[in-house]
Amino acid sequence: MNPLHPLTKWRGHAPNAAKLYGAIVAQARLPVFYQELAVPDTLEGRFFVLSLHLFAVLHRLKTEGGAALDLAQELTDRFSEDLEIVLREIGVGDLAIPKKMRGLTSSSASLLQAYEAALEAGEGAIAATIGEAFPGQHSAPKAATLALAHYLTRTICELEAQSLAALAEGEVRFPGTVPGDELGDDLS
Q1: What's the structural domain count of the chain?
Q2: What tens digit of pLDDT does each residue of 140-166 get?
Q3: What is the rounded distance in angstroms from the CA atom of residue 188 to the CA atom of residue 183?
């Protein structure tokens, strides 16, 4: 008998969420985004690229319902935990963490909603939304925003073709992760 049973998490548990989140983070860290597309290799730039990939996976999961929603929630929770760890690593004090987290969570939610709305309007709208969110510059390079919009659209299409069972096991294939499918070719 578990004496903490009433205090345990009420949501369903997606045991492979950490593996799936790790794959999302690994894809977002690929040098091509920073070297070829002028995304600043900064905290903000990495957050931006991570958000693109997280959005693509969450978009795929939201269409499935049930266990996929549990997995989506676990990914969102891991993202929040990751944000908190980063804030602590850059020296944000314990008392300031909740306020910073509320701001980042709100910003992230707004960005994901903006991507969702843009997706319905087409690749041009996606490029415009990416341009507005592009970190560190007043105006993002047009070629980069167009390439990222194309990449995001392609990623979403590829995720739709992947089984929910594979995603639930933490397995995901992003463009450029299969031999012969070069990411750089897709982005240039």
Answers
A1: 1
A2: 788 999 999 999 999 999 999 999 999
A3: 9
**Domain assignment present for 183:** no
Count of beta carbons in the 10 Å neighbourhood of residue 30: 18
The residue range of the domain holding 96 is 14-172
Give 60-86 pLDDT, tens digit per residue. 999 888 888 999 999 988 888 887 777
Contact partners, residue 178, CB within 8 Å, separation at least 6? none
Q: Does pTM top 0.85 for this prediction? A: no
